[in-house]
Amino acid sequence: SKLKPKTKRSKRFLQSRAPKLTENGKSAMIMKGGNANQTVSQALKDIVRQRMLPQKNITRPFEDSTSLEFFSKKTDCSLFLFGSHNKKRPNNLIFGRLFDFHVLDMIELGIEKYVSLSEIKMTKCPEGTKPMLVFAGEAFDMDNEYKRLKSLLIDFFRGPSVPAVRLAGLEHVLHFTAVNGKIFMRSYRCLLKKSGCRTPRIELEEIGPSFDFVLRRTHLASDDLYKLSHKQPKALKPKKKKNVSHDAFGTKFGRVHMQKQDLSKLQTRKMKGLRKRKREVVDDGESPKVAKVDS
Amino acid sequence: MSNMATASCNVDELLAQAERDEAEKLRSIAVDKELELEFDLGNLLACDKNRLETRDFTGEEKHDFLRSLARDNTQLLINELWKLPTERIQEAVVAKLPEPTTPLPREKPPPRPRPPTKWEQFAKLKGIQKKKKTNLVWDETAKEWRRRWGYKRAKDNTNEWLIEVPQTADPNEDQFVKRITAKKERVAKNELNRLRNIARAQKLKVPGMGLTPVSRQSKDDLVRAASVARTSTASVGKFQERLPKEKPAKGTGKRRKFQPVIGDFSAEKDKQLELLKMMESKRPKLNVTKAVNKQMREDDREEAAARNSKRGKQAGRKGRRDNAAPGKGKGKMGARGKKAGGKPQRGKPSGGKKSKPGKR
């Protein structure tokens, strides 16, 4: 049964959660599993830069995703990060996303080595800066699971989509490297140094956190569900202007389609002298009067 | 001569130095890669597909290797970003980002386009464009700019203390009440159309006239709704049990009765002959006594209603002069129906003994 809004405020709230042409930025739920240890909790906090973490949630995303879907519906979040720890899978992080409040992709990463924010003594970037993302390694292009992981990580870390960015404010870089079956995640602060030309030279300072992940279980969406989730509404596609083209110099050309014209009935400038006379020309030799030409 | 020689040497040196400097500058931001990186500047994203040597990842060197790799890749990304068109907004140099190119899944499926409303269809058919209206309108009486509709609007006629009775109107008609009822009818009609549009969008069925939701439902409305619900079964309500205190609804039943087409025609013959006789008889069409009685009955009823409303007012409720707003059928019919004393509309002609083949 659909809720009927009784106030303007609740109506606006429901409208912001309804499916839209251009959607709001995705928000992520951070959850702690039943037996999360210090490492995992600290890792969760570092990734999200939050002080407090919510209560322990005794669920197993890979077995039963209904509670995940329930929470996502309640909080209107389509991304989640679940941290847990047990003997079989120590220091486990599950990155996941949902489509239409059903699980789309879930990828489990194990933390092999972790250096937290507090351990690296450096001035950090201000919170909320849109980070630059760099993916290195052939695996992100060749392996199916790694490709999905790359897409998931982009979704997670990219931040709100902005039309323009302040060049001096590009400080935060997240670098993911896939090599040897491991994924290294490093977080740097970008220093823009003078280089003599307009583009600055980059120097990096590691600010952390830094992770060495190993890929564990994955639950990837089927191909058709994945395709369905990418379907864009027709209204968003940019309208192609017909009969307008641009050439190499940037000149705009247009094309006009005309019906077939009867050339004998064309309206041209009237030249009195050229008008057909009703009566015959009296003198054969005389040429018709020359028409006056307006200057 | 020696001066010139030294001068030329200096010039050569200077040129060489200049070249070296230039190379130095470009070197500081140049990065050499086998494969070009793929960029998605809308997401501030760079993808490096070059092979990574596994031997660089042994031991302690991996930190430094990762760091230098990151530095190189970031340098390339920054080079690309600096090529974007920039503008200056409040002492900050801002680069305009292009649209993100990486296809990422949506949160929710895209909304289904809603079907156009009745007006939208008509406007499209006729080619009517929406005209943008100004927010404020000049109010002559108040000599200021007021909003077009709503609270303290420009032309508000609800508080007028004087309404001229037009030539064509009945002098005993209450123009103020007329204005108010007209407004209520317009509101109800608009609401009905709005709900119809919504129902069409969701492909639901809307109940017919008389059952649209009203803000304050009267007892009559509820009874009518209940009776409609009862008759909406497959057997048209024949086998629906009544609740203990439910009264049978008034106003149902056949509105017209037709004689059978086959069978005994004597009844029809009689009726037709009677009709002809009456038309011939030259008797007055208006039965004055009947008309007068009817009028007297109506007046009594109105007085009673007025008394009730007065009592209601004193009791503190809102005087419901027009009680049960035209939720009864079409608005106009509703008003007329009220005049006929709220009786079931059996189509009694006003006076006259025109025999109708109906209930007597």
UniProtKB/TrEMBL annotation, chain A:
CC annotations in GO: nucleolus
A GO term, aspect molecular function: rRNA binding
Keyword terms, alphabetized: Nucleus
Compartment annotation: Nucleus, Nucleolus
Disordered: annotated segments: 258-295
A Pfam match: Brix
Occurrences of domain Brix (ranges): 26-224
Compositional bias (Basic residues): 267-279
Keyword Nucleus: yes
Compositionally skewed regions (Basic and acidic residues) per UniProt: 280-295
GO BP term, example: maturation of LSU-rRNA from tricistronic rRNA transcript (SSU-rRNA, 5.8S rRNA, LSU-rRNA)
Family: Belongs to the RPF2 family.
Protein name: Ribosome production factor 2 homolog
Gene source species: Hippocampus comes (Tiger tail seahorse)
UniProtKB/TrEMBL annotation, chain B:
InterPro entries the UniProt entry points to: Ribosom_reg (IPR007023)
Subcellular location: Nucleus
Statement: the UniProt record of this protein carries the keyword tRNA-binding: no
One BP annotation, GO: endonucleolytic cleavage in ITS1 to separate SSU-rRNA from 5.8S rRNA and LSU-rRNA from tricistronic rRNA transcript (SSU-rRNA, 5.8S rRNA, LSU-rRNA)
Keyword annotations of the record: Nucleus, Ribosome biogenesis
Ranges annotated as biased composition (Basic residues): 308-320, 329-341, 351-360
Protein name: Ribosome biogenesis regulatory protein
Basic and acidic residues bias (residue ranges): 239-249, 295-305
Similarity field: Belongs to the RRS1 family.
Annotated spans, Disordered: 97-117, 231-268, 281-360
Keyword Protein biosynthesis belongs to the record: no
General function of this protein: Involved in ribosomal large subunit assembly.
One GO CC annotation: preribosome, large subunit precursor
